[in-house]
Design a protein that fits this description.
CATH topology of the largest domain: TIM Barrel
Number of domains: 2
CATH superfamily of the largest domain: Aldolase class I
Low-confidence stretches: none
Strand order of the largest sheet: 4-13-12-11-10-7-6-5
Bound molecules: flavin mononucleotide
Order of helices and strands: HHHEEEEHEHEHEHEEHHHHEHEHEHEHE
Strand content: 5-15%
Distance between the termini: 45 Å
Number of helices: 15
CATH architecture of the largest domain: Alpha-Beta Barrel
Helix content: 40-55%
Radius of gyration: 20 Å
Largest sheet: 8 strands, parallel
Length: about 400
């Protein structure tokens, strides 16, 4: 019989042995238009594809014959221990994948003792996440044309004691996601083909859409015009909300107003990293928004070494975009990152199995980190260093 390699795509997300397999399960459960919103990138998807290719192109030179029986992957992140060098990334509109998805993600993060970042455009309010879950919560901030939204989020996140404010800097102009656009015949109106595809996903309709309706942007709902309070209308006006005039003045202002950790998300060059330290930021996230904003952008992993060299001893450096394997995470740590943010990998778990699915995604990643750490001959993440890699990227 010829060898047939096919990833599992059935009903039981627990059978997934990799993040790619969780994606296959998610693909069957979620309608095309919602899945496309999650997986897609900008324009030709060069950034999206390169993020993973760049990570794959780095290879290890492992140490051998080391006793790794006592190995662990705990690190200290902003003064507190976390079980793994992972943070769940802020992602908007999670409610299209699962009812009250932000709660499911936050709870899974808390169970795994890692931070969770809540998007400005989440479908559960920042108060509900704080009250129902707690844990280490980071609030992501889009500074929008309507600056009252910024002031409002800042005050409410402070009132709820969010540990960190994550200011996303790479969304001054909305990304051109062409595949996403092709699913609509007019703003907020799906094509007939996609309407039929939704009808072919009764489970999603009965779990997500019919009982609870189209999710709302709960954090900013009071600022939205009546027709844009739900995801349906809101997505259509979204591109107009992004503020093309955001600048370093916002960072200085936020530093003055925000009392706890301030992190900039979307830094990709040394000059900007230095600027962030000069303005008193506590951390930066090297990110190209998972390939969803500027196309043909460098992969964050490419610029990690030079940014670590410039500011690694002055601030916490986190990285995201394209991380799907434990080995990807270890490559970034070896190059000097303190932690890795996970976007789509945990969303695939969410779509495949709700909170348990997110737990499963995290368990896949942490098991892979543990296994590879042992195979590299390391007992902790501190022992990883750039000389253990063949890296032709920089
Ligand atoms: C569906 C989706 C929604 C996102 N929404 C936001 C958001 O609201 N705010 C933000 O700063 N980044 C957002 N991002 C970017 C993520 O925070 C993160 O940078 C990216 O997903 C990392 O790449 P990865 O998905 O390959 O892990 C979003 C990403 C996805 C996939």
């Amino acid at each position: 019989m010829p060898l047939k390699r096919k990833l599992y795509s059935g009903n039981d997300f627990r059978k997934a042995v990799s993040i790619d397999e969780l994606y296959e399960i998610a693909r069957c459960r979620v309608p095309n238009f919602a899945l496309e919103y999650v997986i897609g990138g900008a324009e030709d998807e060069n950034s999206l594809n390169w993020n993973q290719t760049a990570l794959k192109s780095i290879r290890f030179k492992p140490n051998t014959l080391v006793d790794t029986s006592s190995r662990h992957q705990r690190i200290n992140l902003f003064g507190q221990e976390v079980n793994s060098p992972l943070v769940i990334a802020p992602t908007g509109l999670n409610g299209m994948l699962h009812h009250r998805a932000d709660i499911a993600l936050a709870q899974a993060a808390k169970n795994n003792n890692i931070p969770f970042s809540l998007s400005t455009v989440s479908n559960v309010s920042l108060e509900d996440v704080a009250n129902e879950v707690g844990g280490r919560l980071w609030m992501q901030l889009y500074v929008m044309t309507e600056r009252d939204i910024t002031r409002d989020i800042l005050k409410r996140a402070d009132d709820q004691n969010y540990e960190a404010l994550v200011f996303t800097t790479d969304a001054n102009v909305f990304g051109n996601r062409e595949w996403d656009k092709r699913n609509y015949r007019a703003p907020a109106k799906l094509t007939m083909r996609n309407i039929m595809d939704v009808a072919c996903h009764p489970r999603w309709m009965f779990d997500v859409l019919i009982p609870y309706g189209v999710p709302r942007f709960e954090n900013i709902v009071k600022f939205m015009p009546p027709e844009a309070k739900t995801a349906k209308g809101g997505v259509a006006i979204f591109p107009k909300l992004f503020a093309p005039d955001i600048s370093w003045d916002e960072v200085a202002w936020l530093r003055e107003k925000w009392p706890r950790k301030l992190i900039l998300k979307g830094i990709l060059n040394v000059a900007d990293a230095i600027h962030a330290t000069e303005l008193g930021c506590d951390g930066i996230i090297l990110s190209n928004h998972g390939g969803r904003q500027l196309d043909s952008c460098v992969a964050p992993i490419e610029v990690l070494p030079e940014i670590v060299e410039a500011v690694g001893d002055k601030m916490t450096i986190i990285i995201d975009s394209g991380f799907r394997r434990g080995t990807d995470v270890l490559k970034a740590i070896a190059l000097g990152a303190n932690a890795v943010m996970i976007g789509r990998a945990t969303l695939f778990g969410l779509a495949a199995g709700g909170q348990d699915g997110v737990n499963h995604a995290l368990s896949i990643l942490t098991t892979e980190i543990d296994r590879a750490l042992g195979q590299l001959g390391c007992t902790s993440l501190d022992e990883l260093h750039p000389e253990m890699l063949v890296n032709n990227l920089s």
